[in-house]
Amino acid sequence: LSGGALLAIESSCDDSACAILAADGRILAEAVHSQNEHAPLGGVVPEIAARAHLTVLPGLVARTVEQAGMTLGEIGAFAATTGPGLIGGLIVGSSFAKGLAIARQRPFIAVNHIEAHALTPRLPGLSSPPLSFPYLLLLVSGGHCQCVAVRGIGNYEKLGGTIDDAAGEAFDKVAKLLGLGWPGGPALEKLAREGDPTAVALPRPLMGRAGCEFSFSGLKTAVARVLAPYGREPLPRQHAADIAASFQRNVADVMADRAENALGMAPDASALVVAGGVAANGELRARLETVAHQHGIRFVAPPLRLCTDNAVMVGWAALERLRARSTLDLGMEDELAV
Ligand code: KG4
Ligand code: ZN
């Protein structure tokens, strides 16, 4: 890596992010701009997201370079997420990074977004001793929900994923039904603290079944059914809190059950790792930690800013690929099976 530093861009959903990493993985600068255009619309609008990335990225990159005390000329390589994600944003971010790379005749490294989430817990200094392969990743965000056996760089096995909604999507939809804002996960968790998790009978989809597939749409529909009798009447706060607590408890139960099965499918895993925005959820983290300890393995959850979409993870995945001398090609397709 000539110049000793790598600049990375992430733009696959609604976060525009840039980071600069030293060749050894030290974070020299990082910045995330979370687009607020989508909140009033109740979800991410791809076209609006792509245009916002285009507006935000030039300034964000300039600020990140300044924060690192460097100039663009001193950057030795450029990386960006090329998939999977919303295609407009991917094109904006990766074209921007490729443009910078071509202008300075530096390498460009294409990064798979899921691989970036999967390798983040290996960032130097994040866990002690450093996380080694193989480990089990539970990736739970607004867009992703899957169990992946991470065996090495480029060696991933998807053990199961959602057959309908992602976990974060379920939190967001149920929060919406309860009249909470978007994104709903944090608001729902807060409300759940005032509720009784055993008060409302809700299903636990796929619980007790083999494999580690997920399903959340039935749980969401069950909440809608509980709420139906209220029509347009305001929901009593205690009842809303009980529903939130019961929903969250069931999601945690299902996740623990799925993680248990996944560990059975990857018995060589040395750690259980959770990433994605839903990993912010305290109840879920606690349950998964218990599962890991019952299996006698470590539980690793990167700090929240590195669990949600960010560019540090993109830079780190690019460095891991460079070190393994196995960079992805420049295509926009999902090169990995996961
Ligand atoms: O990883 P992320 O920032 O973006 C992507 O989807 O890629 O994840 C956002 C998702 C949203 O669905 C949000 O509601 C959920 O993570 N989330 C939570 C919590 N904080 C964020 N879900 C449950 N509990 C939370 N505390
Ligand atoms: Zn993500």
UniProtKB/TrEMBL annotation:
Class of enzymatic activity (EC top level): transferase
Cofactor: Fe(2+)
Principal cellular location given in the protein's record: cytoplasm
GO BP annotations listed: tRNA threonylcarbamoyladenosine modification
Cofactor binding remark: Binds 1 Fe(2+) ion per subunit.
Highest taxon of the lineage: Bacteria
UniProt entry tagged with the keyword Acyltransferase: yes
Protein name: tRNA N6-adenosine threonylcarbamoyltransferase
Organism from which the protein derives: Brytella acorum
Species classification: Bacteria, Pseudomonadati, Pseudomonadota, Alphaproteobacteria, Acetobacterales
